[in-house]
Amino acid sequence: MKRSLLPWLILAAILLLLFPAVAEKFYLQLVTKIMILSIFALSLDLLVGYTGLVSLGHAAYFGIAAYTYALVSPAADPANVWLTLPLALAASAAAALLVGALVLRTSGVYFIMVTLAFAQMAYYFFHDTRIAGGSDGIYVNTRPDALVPGVDLANDLHFYYFVLAALAVVFALLAIILRSPFGRALQGIKANEHRMRALGFATLRYKLAAFVLAGTIAGLAGYLAAAKEGYVNPEMMAWHQSGTVLMMLILGGMGTLLGAVLGAFSYVLLQEWFSALTKHWQLLMGVFIVAAVLLLPQGLIGLHQLRMKPRLPRAEDERD
Amino acid sequence: MTEPVLVATGLGRRFGGLVAVDDVTLALTPQSVHAVIGPNGAGKSTLINLLSGDLSPSTGTIRLGALDITRWPSHRIAQHGVARSFQHTNVFAAFSTFENCRLAAQSHHRNFNRWFRPAERYADWNAAAEAALAIVGLAGRSGIAAAALSHGERRALEIAMALATHPAVLLLDEPLAGMGPEESKHIVALLERLAGDHAILLVEHDMDAVFALADRLTVMVNGRILASGPPEAIRANADVQRAYLGTEAVSAL
Predict the structure, then answer these.
(1) Contact state of A320 with B96 under an 8 Å Cβ cutoff
(2) Are B96 and A318 in contact (CB < 8 Å)?
(3) Secondary structure of A26-88 in HEC code, one letter for each residue
(4) Of the candidates B54, B120, B145, which has its C-beta nearest A315's C-beta?
(5) Which candidate in B100, B113, B115, B163 is best for mutational testing of the A interface (most A CBs within 10 A)?
(6) From the candidates A193, A201, A204, A212, which should be mutated to test the interface with B, based on the most B CB atoms within 10 A?
(7) Assigned CATH topology for domain B1-81+168-253
(8) Chain-chain contact of B144 with A194 (C-beta, under 8 angstroms)
(9) Could you give the angle at the alpha carbon of B188 between the alpha carbons of B240 and B103, nearest 5°?
(10) How many domains does chain A have?
């Protein structure tokens, strides 16, 4: 992460920590939802923004963890977080490993289509079978239990901080990994995979590891979404869901972690605002995103660099 | 005579009906420069792509020491000490000059499972990158984005990236392409020094450089070897003069 974004990161963290003190219940739940989508967007950013793998089927791993949680939860009692969460993450990771091992042999537009195809397979698997309520979806009547004295995830305030902690952990984990040799290799693959192979990197392994890690983090978001809503349905893994999170990333700015979070916040808040104005909110959203892409090719996070640029010649951007 | 380190035997590659490389046999020995010359389209770059594993051969074998590497993928060949440079500058333009070399050094160490410690804290890799930059004369440019380097500097960076992996064999595809006389002189001197402890395959159009550096010369035309031998023999070879060098070049010799 670029050092100059650090003040903004600290500011965002403080605002999120203090937000519940002033928020009404509706906004508390809204920001909880946005933070979950931020985790989802961060996971996709690892693939698209840092490894150069444009997946249009990322919602599959979001949905698989959600379904795993719903299917293993007891009918009446709250599920144990520390049992169901690892199980849900493992399910998403396994699916990502399986799909990744196949799709990473393709690239470019083929990669986009094949990831989409696998996600649609997962979608129709849950849509057209009776395994988990088919197209109607399945309810989970209680929030999971973290089994920590004084923590009650059924309480929206506690759940808010639980999600915020998850977001902070994911953000920090990705920030650390991206600075590591492994993370540098991913960024090299994004820049020029052929050159990386010529240097001696077995790039397929790196891409597969990134794909599995991204799928697992998407699974965390899916688990939290299912726990929050108490409801899971096939739409969670539909292609619009994959498309929406990709649009969040484009809007916020891919290739920066803060951009992914900013994208999730701006997308959902704009959606709220536009849909209050008109029922044709998608039209406004479309225009907004096209305008944002044209004016800010690096996404909203580019506003920050725009201000910096005149003082820094381009060549020195990389100087440490 | 030292044992050859990289040996290609009967190497061929066809693309559909086109035979780009046909029955090429050559050997690279340590501490020597083997230059490959020939007109455009003679198959020189394809030859490098075959030796580096970027392309897999249709016929023939490639041996690296005692290993048969004919079907190996490029990253595995690179891991075994065969580094290449590209005819068209192929560096990570957005990364700093230093990071280009640091990444190259990283590639030859266990790094896949290193997910937590920042990459800059691996002192060995930093040292290898700095040493490689110093050898090619880019030590003072390490903080600059590769995109901001001059053409000649980027060509030098190509070589530095190869050196950061501590290779035994260097496959250099037109390292002097597009360089001015001063820059060329600098790279020729560099290659002279590198020949002291590497086996070098040099594909190059600059005949002054080729005859200054080469211990052995192979002339390729239409994918085949027309002649191969010490530079003096090639210079005197009537076939070569007629088929490739042309009257203009002959007078230059």
Answers:
(1) yes
(2) yes
(3) HHHHHHHHHHHHHHHHHHHHHHHHHHCCCCCCCHHHHHHHHHHHHHHCCCCCCCEHHHHHHHH
(4) B145
(5) B115
(6) A201
(7) Rossmann fold (3.40.50)
(8) no
(9) 115
(10) 1
Task: Give pLDDT tens digits for A42-97.
Answer: 999 999 999 999 999 999 999 999 999 999 988 888 888 899 999 999 999 999 99
Question: At residue B8, does pLDDT exceed 50?
Answer: yes
3-state secondary structure of B56: coil
Q: Tell me: the pLDDT tens digits for B244-253?
A: 656 555 445 4
Q: Is the per-residue pLDDT at A314 higher than 60?
A: no
**What are B21-34's pLDDT values in tens digits?**
999 999 999 999 99
Cβ neighbors of B163 (< 8 A, separation 6 or more) are B83, B131, B132, B135, B136, B194
Among partner residues B78, B122, B144, which is closest to A198 by beta-carbon distance? B78
Model pTM score: 0.91
Chain A residues close to B93, C-beta within 8 Å? 191
Q: What is the mean pLDDT of residues B101-112?
A: 94
Encode pLDDT of B191-211 as tens digits: 999 999 999 999 999 989 999
CATH code: domain of residue A217: 1.10.3470
Domain with CATH 3.40.50.300 in chain B: 1-81+168-253
Rounded to an integer, the average pLDDT of A295-314 is 68
* The pLDDT value given to residue A306: 64
pLDDT at B245: 59
Q: Which residues from chain B sit within 8 angstroms of residue A179, using beta carbons?
A: 118-120
Q: Do B96 and A185 make contact, defined as CB atoms within 8 angstroms? A: no
Look at residue A315 in the predicted model and tell me its pLDDT.
Answer: 44
Residue to mutate among A199, A204, A205, A208, with most B CBs inside 10 A, is A199
Residues spanned by the domain of A180: 3-318
Task: Tell me what ipTM this predicted complex has.
Answer: 0.91
CB contact under 8 A, A202 and B106: no
| Dihedral sign, Cα of residue B131, residue B132, residue B138, residue B141 | negative
| Alpha carbons A46 and A72: distance in angstroms, whole number | 29
